[in-house]
Amino acid sequence: MRSFRRVLRVQTISKLRKKTIFRLYDQLHSALQGALPVTSFPLSPRLLKGALVTLNSASGRVERTIPFQYNPETLSRTLQTQATEGTGARSEALRLKGAPVETIKLDIEIDATDPLEKADRTSVQLGIYPQLSALETLIYPASSQVSQNMQNAALGMIEVIPLEAPMTLLVWGRRRVLPVRLTDFNITEEAYDVNLNPIRAKISLSLRVLNYDDLPWGQRGAQLFLSYHREKERMANLGVPSNPVGPTGVDINR
Fold first, then answer.
1. If we measure between CA atoms, which residue out of 35, 14, 15, 17 comes closest to residue 26?
2. Do 69 and 125 have their domain in common?
3. In this structure, is residue 202 part of a structural domain?
4. Within a domain: 254
5. 114 and 27 in one domain?
């Protein structure tokens, strides 16, 4: 009797699996035929988008989020070691002044083709001007600060406070939320509408990662970089053997 129940249960599970497979196949086939969007396929992963996020320097609150319309295909990173300089004592040879200076370069694209096909009002009237302006203002001081400084200068104030750009974060997945400063910004506008509004452009960005040596310790950016540092240490311990004998055949401890 137990054997019969076991066979019946296996047959039932097998039928359920077949039904599930056929249902998934039908959904995928319908999606490919245009009856369903591909994103309705239950096994389709959710695509996260990279973004630049600005924070209020005083409160640390998010002021603006600029998601990438298309994630860059490549992202170039350069790390420059911050070693102590000079000949000094031999005991100083391995000392570090701090975290390495990290530079990130990436290219992003902005295209108004899809919004224009959907007759999006902003895209029809302005093309991609709003998206370009959102990126460009990351390296502009606030116009209100400029006006205030001009008024102070007109009143004869000798010392004018340097203007401060917003705190900018590069968000590239959950493990990379980095305070950055834009050091290079190159825009190539490739197409325009009848009113000469840009409707397609490529932007090359060079970002200097700001670490806890660059920022006030109480600022949110410094804490975010420390979390990034700790995450690197945690990831470095995963899947890496501590004893080199296995992969190299050399026993360093002898």
1. 35
2. yes
3. yes
4. no
5. no
Q: What is the mean pLDDT of residues 168-179?
A: 92
Q: Using an 8 Å Cβ cutoff, are 49 and 71 in contact?
A: yes
- Kindly state whether residues 115 and 219 are assigned to the same domain: yes
Q: What is the pLDDT of residues 53-107, one digit of tens each?
A: 998 877 778 889 999 999 999 999 999 988 777 656 666 777 888 889 999 999 9
Residues 51 and 24 occupy one common structural domain = no
pLDDT at 205 over 50: yes
Task: Give the number of other Cβ atoms within 10 Å of residue 200's Cβ.
Answer: 16
Tell me the pLDDT tens digit for each residue of 6-32: 444 444 444 444 444 445 445 444 444
Structural domain that includes position 186:
47-238
Structure pTM?
0.72
End-to-end CA distance of the chain: 64
Query: Of the candidates 87, 102, 84, which has an alpha carbon nearest to the alpha carbon of residue 176?
Result: 102
- At 13 the pLDDT is 41
